[in-house]
Sequence to fold (83 residues):
Amino acid sequence: MASILPFIRKAGTVFDDRVTEIMGEAFDSACNELHDTGQPAIVYEVIAKRIIEATRTGERNVMRLRNAGLAALGLQGDDKQAG
Fold:
């Protein structure tokens, strides 16, 4: 599975360890919602970029970050699931 870390580095933004962990959880959860390990790299990049953007604006809730990533693909997440 892809990781959000390369996308964070590519964005040139620095987040503390706690926030990076939250972003990673949100990214992993969003990717798991796709139910397919064969996604093209651009799909992961779109999800990561949206999560990074939302984090830059101050969002720290894993589920809202995950849903932001999914929304970038026109998908809607299930708020009842965690990670």
Remarks:
- Residues 5-71 form one domain.
